[in-house]
């Protein structure tokens, strides 16, 4: 048995990670005159869709995570260096066969409804996630390998796995697996959706649909994660969590002082805000996959690696990224987000080279061009269907696709951009009616690679959903990912994931673009807000207003 | 006399209620069949769309629960019976009874629409009364103001208003704040196009009234220009605008879709937009029925008001 | 029973002469017609007004404010906004025209059935139109989109269908008025066949207001379609359709006002021009014959609903 | 002392080249208790003259006068505010059309009381009493009820009386009556004239504007004849009615068919020549030829409108027979059912009972299909031809529409020109729109169209009611000529007894849907049998015998 896995592997994320704690930047530029003051209500304006249920166990998407971070806590967290740190679980051990995990829980923690936090609560939560009636998808997948949870004693919870899972801690650190009050869960789904009960620094007071969620301070708060800036109850009296879908309105509201924090900030606004001395940016790229375009290798023409490479060589991503994101996003050359310690990059594969692209296409048999300048082969046009979900792609990203479309045209690709609503987009994917697609995936840890590139991910669920959009069907990759999933040794695991990433990159299955953008803009009156190292959701547990 | 009048009122009321009921029933029927045309498996939609990872069992359960496995006509019967009990079903996306969602969102939109309608009337009256019939330039300016007002897209107007009155002048908040100040910009945004339409109609009938022989005879009795407008012409000008108001209210509900999104106000319009994007059929049905109901009620009210103002129509005649 | 001259009217003008039939053309009408003609030119031959390629991206040239080289500035991909507006005129107008066409055709069909299909058909159509009226325009448009899914075609159909009830009411009234007119009675008294009366007298007179109505409708349809685009339900970028341009421009409002202002002004100017032309056509046809739609389409969309 | 003094009054409209003189150098005066009448046809400037006295010449008018003095006030120099004080107080106006001269949205009492409200300091209560008194004074029965009612609830006569009540409410010293009895039935007209005479006798100055010499004769002390803006003749009433000094005055006087025998041209008559009754007897005899088959006959016609208790019987047991070549005059007041009889004869509506025969064959009660070929035999001329021609058509098109089919375009144009010539119009009018023609020209086009179909019988519904007297006279002369030339039969429907008497061979008097009396014209007019006929004839304002 080894205690608490330590040491992160490759500190690639250091630069990005240091930016996570905002207080550092804000503190440097301004002389800190006074210390934290208690009181005040922070108004947060979210551009994310309003959750339909505040319980992140149900479904499990990013908007839920944003809110849940304020009032729910997980067993473990991840710090700025990418290392798993204690939270509601103070320590843990794992058996040699990697199938039994024992978590020692923090003592004296109570849910805000007065229910004590104990091992039984952990057991109830995992079972809640696994219950089909909960309709959990993110959390459900994360505890797929957990066979059972047993309350050994009040403060010891034992997880028994069906097979080794090196991603267990990372999974448990996510807000979608946060621990809720068993009494709260017992109220039933409808009520629990309205006001889930946790141990966090704030409590859900009320939820006015389409308008705001009102959060008030948990005066008895006592369970911050190990990397917290501040112990004890929050300084803020509460948070008004508003839903303002229109990005221009959101920014206008911030400028007008109606709100203090906004998310989903547009690149041009970020650039403008840089010059402002009343606004501060918090850049917290999400973990998991990078934003990338996936090339459907499951059908022609991208079943030919040469055509895939030709496409990737024909588009000038660097120029597009710099023009549209104006320096607010770094180009990525990795399947994983830069905040992931296991991220592996290879920029040599993605150089813009139109000549090379043309040569590759000529050799691949796409040597004819029709009157529109589109290449053909046996009378077939080199047309690429690119369904884009307007719900998932921000405007700048759509513009980026437009620019890539224009670039690929020069090489003879006819890229058909099709902006779709979510349902139609899923339908297009389910019908295998796409050659290019862009779908980010947020998850803590490199295990996301298994979801995205394991051939198991090609088989659609009954509803048609699948995650391996590139349709990478490579036994070598599968083997690497399976092995990594069962390998607890950090170094070995990292090496396996690096190899898998290299295979994916070299197979030209994906065109990495940049990290999943997650920019927040804060009024300078907000101090000590930070983004958690898990899924980069903002935490206001230590924040105060001046 | 009064007896026959009372009878006439009763008859009118009965006819009106019957007609309103028929319109509502027909609206419900129309919406029911239109929503059945929505592509995709309704059971899947009920479970969160194709993106959800619903199992076959879950889908079957939902089919049974909502009656999707029944023949269409049976489903229709079930839906109509449910409607009689004011049961509009449960939102697929929000997992809440639609009636609850409507109860939550109607007041906000109603406030917005009523205030906008009042403001539109005020603006239209101001525009109408300030314009001088004699001056050609005045008429041309009036025309242009009306057309521009009635042609300006809500979202563009809102954008400009926010840029000027929130960002530059900081007079009003750019998003709903729950205070009266937060209502100003959305209400103005909604009111301007309606004011344009109302003013156009009002100005037309004001001109007509001012050039009517009865206006000449009023002037010949020594009536002043102001007296002529307020005592005589205004009533005539108001009549067609009143007739337009029920329609205008519907227009406002349509406009609310845009305005509520931009100004981050909770309301019917925003619910509807969200419901359409995720194909949340029960919510769409609910919103459409509510607006049909509002339209029907308002038609009755404006009809009654018109009859009160205009004795020529009267309750007795058809 | 003489009709003595009304005191405010110049009696010599009241004695009609052929040349005075037309009202004086106003400056506004001239401007409107000139603008409308340029729009048509832009739709048919955009290259004539804007020789550049509207889709040509120049990433390093993005967000240029208006200048001599780019009179309306450039957008996020460095495309010339002026060029895109000119090239977008076609699709915007096409959406407006097609939507109005769909609306009017549907309305005409309904109205013809109502007027000539007998009492029962009239009742059915009348009720149907009344029911459709209960659905505010944007709501019925959203219903259509719910069925068809978002997109430019759906938006066009949606706007078109949602305007149909208003048009149907106006056309029906017009048909009924003409059918009850003295000149139709005269035609009957001359022993003309019903078919001849319908084709040569009723339809030409009843439908003459349609031109004015259609002109008024096109501007409104462009506005509605742009609203749908703004909501993400209509034409999508990178199509240089004005509504779509505006929708994507709103995001950059704070840093690139020109992206929002110019397409918006163009939509406004289009509506202003079409409305001015429509109203003057309306007024002229009303002055020409009493069959003119005065009071009906003078309020045009309004009396029904403005598309 | 003069109440009103007008010297060299000129009124023009417009400016610069568009300037048009409407009133030129008009001078007259009115003393208290005096009635001065201005007669003239449309566009003669008589109404503008009257309104100028009130300061209501209209927008864009230029008023120029050496003297324009009303009760000591120089009207041409008064400001609008001061004029407002005079209007309704010193000078009252009774407009021509009570149907539209009362605000339909206000109660009658409010309209009547307005001058008191504006010019007298009276309480609302006193005003209400005064209004009731006023209404009673002008002979409105049940004045309390009427004051509370709205204009549309009153009959035309009561409306006109209310308007007079409103005009005299503030006891003005001068009353301007602009066509006060136009559009009223004879019996009502008589009452109004008596009322005005009473006012005059009570020392109110009266300016009467009228085209009706009968009305003028019964009221006026002096008469001004206006034409083209000028006073061309003036003098004591008796002198003017005897033909005055100006030829136009004579024409005007002669244009009235009153007392002019059948088949005597109205306009061609020599002023001095005595009426020639010689032909009258023979012509009225002519159609009564025994054995002559009626062209159009109807027996037992009944027609109701509305249903149930709201039904009104418009035509109730009417028999009419029109012989070949004769004119049947149908006379009656508005609402007597005469127009419905016309429509039944035209087979535009089907009778509820009874039958119409055309040349002995069924005309009513047969399918339209079988009627259609015979429709051309029955022509129709309405009061207002402009509403019965397609607004898009030219005169040529209108007439050609009535011509038989199978003609070449050239033949059609020739035939249309012939038809125009037949009604004494120039072929130059062929390309004009009927709407651009004068009223007389339009009526002639209407007749030309009716004749182009070569009918046997014409139904003439108030064919000259909308025309000025001299124009009407021309049309009547034309109709008479055409009848003699072509052997046409006429059914002449009119409320104007003088027209009926002048044009008809036989007369049917209608009252409340029935024919109360029928017979040869002279018999009916000289020895009426029915009580109603006698009353009708008594109410005609007769010209004093010359």
From TrEMBL, chain A:
InterPro entries: Peptide/Ni-bd, SBP_5, SBP_5_dom
GO molecular function: peptide transmembrane transporter activity
Domain Solute-binding protein family: 83-453
One GO biological process term: peptide transport
Regions crossing the membrane: none
GO cellular component: ATP-binding cassette (ABC) transporter complex; cell envelope; periplasmic space
Signal peptide (UniProt feature, chain positions): 1-26
Location(s) in or outside the cell: Cell envelope
Superkingdom of source: Bacteria
Pfam families referenced in this protein's UniProt entry, alphabetically: SBP_bac_5
UniProt keyword annotations, A-Z: Signal, Transport
Family designation: Belongs to the bacterial solute-binding protein 5 family.
Protein name according to UniProt: ABC transporter substrate-binding protein
Organism from which the protein derives: Labedella populi
UniProtKB/TrEMBL annotation, chain C:
Chief localization: membrane
Topology term for the membrane: Multi-pass membrane protein
Ranges that cross the membrane: 30-50, 93-117, 129-147, 153-171, 210-235, 255-275
Gene3D superfamilies: MetI-like
Record localization: Cell membrane
InterPro entries per record: BP-dependent_transpt_permease, MetI-like, MetI-like_sf
Similarity section: Belongs to the binding-protein-dependent transport system permease family.
The UniProt record lists the keyword Transmembrane: yes
Name under which the protein is recorded: ABC transporter permease
Keywords recorded for this protein, A-Z: Cell membrane, Membrane, Transmembrane, Transmembrane helix, Transport
Domain ABC transmembrane type-1 positions: 89-278
Organism: Labedella populi
One of the record's GO cellular component terms: plasma membrane
Start-end of Low complexity biased regions: 285-307
One GO-annotated biological process of the protein: transmembrane transport
Region of interest (Disordered), ranges: 284-307
Automatic annotation (TrEMBL), chain D:
PROSITE patterns associated with the record: ABC_TRANSPORTER_1, ABC_TRANSPORTER_2
Domain called ABC transporter: residue spans: 4-253, 296-537
Cited InterPro entries: AAA+_ATPase, ABC_transp_ATP-bind, ABC_transporter-like_ATP-bd, ABC_transporter-like_CS, Oligopep_ABC_C, P-loop_NTPase
Pfam family, one: oligo_HPY
Source organism of the structure: Labedella populi
UniProt-listed NCBIfam families: PRK10419.1, PRK11308.1
GO biological process: peptide transport; transmembrane transport
SUPFAM superfamilies the record matches: P-loop containing nucleoside triphosphate hydrolases
Descriptive protein name: ABC transporter ATP-binding protein
Keywords for the protein's UniProt record, in alphabetical order: ATP-binding, Nucleotide-binding, Transport
Domain of life of the source: Bacteria
Family: Belongs to the ABC transporter superfamily.
């Amino acid at each position: 048995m080894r205690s608490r896995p330590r040491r992160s592997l490759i500190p690639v994320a250091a630069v990005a990670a240091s930016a996570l704690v905002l207080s550092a930047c804000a503190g440097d530029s301004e002389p800190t005159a006074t210390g934290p003051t208690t009181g005040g209500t922070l108004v947060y304006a979210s551009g994310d869709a309003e959750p339909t249920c505040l319980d992140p166990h149900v479904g499990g998407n990013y908007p839920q995570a944003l809110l849940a971070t304020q009032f729910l806590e997980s067993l473990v967290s991840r710090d700025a260096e990418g290392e798993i740190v204690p939270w509601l679980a103070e320590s843990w051990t794992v058996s040699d066969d990697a199938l039994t995990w024992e978590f020692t829980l923090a003592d004296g923690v109570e849910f805000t409804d007065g229910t004590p936090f104990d091992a039984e609560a952990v057991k109830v939560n995992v079972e809640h996630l696994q219950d089909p009636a909960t309709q959990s998808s993110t959390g459900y997948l994360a505890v797929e390998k957990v066979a059972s949870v047993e309350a050994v004693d009040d403060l010891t919870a034992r997880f028994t796995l069906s097979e080794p899972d090196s991603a267990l801690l990372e999974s448990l650190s996510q807000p979608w697996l946060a621990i809720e009050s068993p009494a709260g869960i017992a109220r039933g789904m409808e009520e629990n959706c309205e006001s889930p009960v946790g141990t966090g620094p704030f409590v859900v007071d009320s939820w006015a649909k389409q308008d705001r969620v009102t959060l008030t301070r948990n005066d008895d708060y006592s369970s911050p994660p190990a990397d917290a800036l501040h112990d004890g109850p929050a300084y803020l009296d509460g948070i008004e969590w508003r839903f303002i879908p229109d990005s221009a309105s959101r920014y206008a509201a911030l400028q007008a002082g109606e709100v203090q924090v906004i998310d989903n900030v547009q690149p041009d606004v970020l650039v403008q805000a840089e010059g402002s001395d009343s606004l501060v940016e918090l850049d917290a790229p999400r973990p998991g996959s990078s934003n990338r375009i996936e090339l459907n290798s499951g059908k022609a023409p991208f079943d030919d690696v040469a055509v895939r490479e030709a496409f990737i060589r024909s588009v000038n991503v660097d120029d597009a990224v710099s023009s549209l994101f104006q320096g607010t996003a770094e180009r990525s050359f990795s399947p994983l987000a830069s905040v992931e310690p296991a991220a592996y990059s290879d920029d040599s594969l993605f150089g813009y080279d139109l000549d090379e692209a043309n040569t590759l296409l000529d050799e691949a048999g796409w040597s004819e061009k029709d009157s529109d300048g589109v290449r053909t082969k046996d009378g077939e046009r080199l047309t690429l269907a690119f369904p884009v979900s307007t719900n998932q792609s921000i405007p700048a990203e759509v513009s980026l696709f437009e620019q890539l479309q224009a670039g690929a045209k020069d090489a003879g690709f006819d890229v058909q951009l099709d902006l779709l609503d979510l349902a139609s987009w899923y339908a297009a994917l389910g019908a295998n009616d796409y050659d290019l697609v862009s779908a980010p995936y947020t998850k803590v840890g490199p295990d996301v690679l298994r979801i995205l590139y394991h051939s198991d991910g090609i088989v659609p669920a009954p509803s048609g959903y699948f995650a391996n959009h590139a349709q990478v069907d490579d036994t070598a990759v599968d083997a690497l990912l399976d092995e990594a999933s069962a390998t607890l040794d950090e170094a070995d695991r990292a090496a396996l994931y690096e190899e898998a990433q290299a295979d994916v990159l070299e197979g030209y299955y994906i065109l990495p673009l940049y990290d999943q953008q997650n920019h927040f803009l804060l009024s300078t009156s907000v101090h000590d807000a930070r983004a958690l190292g898990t899924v980069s959701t903002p935490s206001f547990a230590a924040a105060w207003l001046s | 006399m009064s007896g026959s009048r009372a009878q006439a009122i009763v008859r009118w009321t009965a006819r009106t209620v019957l007609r309103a009921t028929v319109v509502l029933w027909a609206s419900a029927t129309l919406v029911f069949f239109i929503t059945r045309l929505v592509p995709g498996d309704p059971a899947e939609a009920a479970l969160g769309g194709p993106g959800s990872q619903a199992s076959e069992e879950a889908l079957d359960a939902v089919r049974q629960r909502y009656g999707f496995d029944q023949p269409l006509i049976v489903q229709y019967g079930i839906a109509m019976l449910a409607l009689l009990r004011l049961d509009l079903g449960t939102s697929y996306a929000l997992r809440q009874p639609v009636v609850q969602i409507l109860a939550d969102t109607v007041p906000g939109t109603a406030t917005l629409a009523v205030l906008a309608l009042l403001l539109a009337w005020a603006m239209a009256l101001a525009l109408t009364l300030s314009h001088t019939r004699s001056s050609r330039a005045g008429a041309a300016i009036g025309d242009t103001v009306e057309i521009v007002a009635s042609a300006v897209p809500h979202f563009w107007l809102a954008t400009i208003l926010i840029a000027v009155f929130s960002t530059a002048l900081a007079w009003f908040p750019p998003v709903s704040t729950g205070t009266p100040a937060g209502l100003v910009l959305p209400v103005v945004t909604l009111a301007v196009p309606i004011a344009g339409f109302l003013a156009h109609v009002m100005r037309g009938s004001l001109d007509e009234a001012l050039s009517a022989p009865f206006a000449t005879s009023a002037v010949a009795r020594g009536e002043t220009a102001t007296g002529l407008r307020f005592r005589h012409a205004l009533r005539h000008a108001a009549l067609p605008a009143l007739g337009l108001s029920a329609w205008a209210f519907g227009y406002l509900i349509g406009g609310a879709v845009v305005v509520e999104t931009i100004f981050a106000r909770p309301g019917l319009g925003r619910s509807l937009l969200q419901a359409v994007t995720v194909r949340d059929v029960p919510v769409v049905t609910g919103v459409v029925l509510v607006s049909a109901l509002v339209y029907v009620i308002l038609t009755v009210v404006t009809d009654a008001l018109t009859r009160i103002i205009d004795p020529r129509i009267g309750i007795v005649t058809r | 029973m003489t009709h003595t001259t009304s005191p405010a009217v110049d009696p010599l003008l009241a004695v009609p002469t052929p040349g005075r039939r037309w009202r004086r053309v106003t400056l506004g009408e001239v401007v409107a017609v000139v603008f409308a003609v340029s729009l048509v030119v832009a739709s048919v031959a955009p290259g004539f007004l804007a020789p550049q390629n509207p889709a040509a991206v120049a990433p390093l040239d993005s967000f240029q404010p208006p200048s001599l080289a780019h009179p309306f500035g450039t957008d996020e991909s460095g495309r010339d906004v002026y060029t895109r507006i000119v090239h977008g005129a076609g699709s915007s107008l096409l959406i407006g025209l097609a939507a109005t066409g769909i609306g009017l055709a549907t309305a005409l069909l309904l109205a013809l059935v109502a007027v000539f299909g007998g009492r029962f058909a009239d009742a059915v159509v009348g009720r149907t139109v009344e029911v459709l009226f209960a659905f505010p325009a944007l709501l019925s448009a959203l219903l259509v989109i719910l069925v068809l899914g978002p997109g430019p075609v759906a938006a066009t159909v949606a706007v078109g269908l949602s305007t149909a009830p208003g048009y149907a009411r106006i056309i029906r009234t017009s048909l009924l008025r003409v059918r009850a007119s003295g000149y139709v009675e005269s035609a009957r008294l001359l022993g003309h066949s019903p078919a001849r009366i319908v084709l040569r007298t009723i339809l030409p007179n009843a439908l003459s207001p349609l031109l004015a109505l259609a002109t008024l409708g096109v501007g409104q349809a462009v506005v509605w379609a742009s609203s749908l685009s703004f909501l993400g339900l209509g034409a999508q970028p990178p199509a240089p359709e004005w509504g779509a341009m505006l929708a994507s421009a709103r995001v950059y409002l704070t840093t690139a006002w020109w992206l929002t202002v110019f397409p918006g002004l163009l939509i406004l100017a289009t509506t202003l021009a079409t409305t001015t032309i429509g109203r003057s056509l309306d007024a002229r046809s009303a002055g020409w014959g009493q069959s003119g739609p005065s009071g009906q389409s003078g309020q045009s969309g309004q009396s029904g609903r403005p598309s | 002392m003069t109440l009103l003094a007008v010297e060299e009054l000129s009124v023009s409209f417009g400016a610069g080249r568009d300037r048009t003189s409407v009133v030129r150098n008009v001078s007259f005066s009115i003393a208290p208790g005096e009635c001065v009448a201005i007669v003239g046809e449309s566009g003669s400037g008589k109404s503008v003259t009257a309104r100028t006295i009130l300061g209501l010449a209209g927008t864009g008018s230029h008023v120029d006068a050496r003297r324009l003095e009303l009760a000591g006030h120089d009207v041409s120099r008064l400001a609008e505010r001061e004029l407002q004080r005079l209007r309704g107080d010193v000078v009252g106006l009774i407009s021509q059309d009570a149907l539209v001269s009362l605000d339909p949205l206000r109660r009658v009492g409010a309209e009547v009381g307005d001058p008191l409200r504006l010019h007298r300091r009276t309480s609302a209560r006193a005003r209400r009493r005064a209004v009731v008194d006023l209404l009673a004074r002008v002979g409105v029965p049940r004045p309390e009820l009427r004051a509370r009612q709205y204009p549309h609830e009153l009959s035309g006569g009561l409306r006109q009386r209310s308007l007079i009540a409103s005009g005299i409410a503030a006891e003005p010293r001068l009353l301007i009556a602009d066509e006060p009895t136009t559009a009223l039935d004879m019996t009502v007209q008589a009452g109004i004239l008596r009322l005005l005479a009473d006012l005059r006798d009570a020392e109110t100055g009266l300016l009467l504007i009228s085209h009706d010499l009968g009305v003028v004769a019964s009221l006026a002390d002096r008469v001004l004849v206006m034409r083209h803006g000028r006073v061309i003749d003036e003098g004591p009433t008796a002198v003017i009615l005897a033909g005055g000094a100006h030829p136009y005055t004579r024409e005007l006087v002669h244009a009235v068919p009153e007392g002019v025998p059948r088949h005597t041209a109205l306009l061609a008559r020599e002023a001095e020549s005595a009426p020639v009754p010689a032909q009258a007897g023979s012509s009225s005899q002519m159609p009564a030829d025994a054995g002559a088959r009626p062209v159009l006959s109807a027996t037992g016609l009944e027609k109701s409108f509305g249903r149930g208790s709201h039904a009104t019987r418009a035509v109730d047991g009417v028999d009419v027979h029109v012989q070949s070549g004769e004119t049947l005059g149908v006379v009656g007041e508005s609402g007597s059912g005469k127009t419905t009889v016309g429509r039944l004869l035209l087979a535009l509506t089907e009778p509820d009972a009874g039958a119409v025969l055309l040349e002995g064959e069924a005309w009513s009660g047969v399918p339209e299909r079988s009627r259609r070929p015979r429709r051309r035999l029955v022509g129709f001329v309405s009061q207002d031809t402009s509403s019965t021609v397609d607004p898009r058509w030219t005169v040529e098109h209108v007439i050609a529409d009535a011509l038989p089919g199978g003609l070449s375009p050239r033949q059609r144009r020739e035939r249309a020109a012939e038809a125009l010539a037949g009604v004494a119009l120039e072929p130059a009018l062929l390309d004009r729109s009927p709407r651009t023609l004068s009223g007389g020209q339009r009526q002639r086009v209407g007749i030309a169209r009716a004749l182009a179909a070569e009918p046997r019988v014409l139904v003439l519904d108030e064919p000259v009611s909308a025309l000025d007297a001299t124009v009407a006279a021309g049309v009547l002369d034309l109709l008479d000529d055409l009848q003699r030339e072509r052997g046409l039969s006429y059914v002449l429907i009119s409320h104007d007894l003088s027209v009926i008497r002048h044009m008809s061979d036989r007369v049917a008097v209608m009252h409340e849907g029935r024919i109360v009396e029928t017979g040869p014209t002279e018999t009916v007019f000289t020895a009426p049998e029915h009580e109603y006929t006698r009353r009708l004839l008594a109410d005609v304002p007769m010209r004093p015998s010359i």
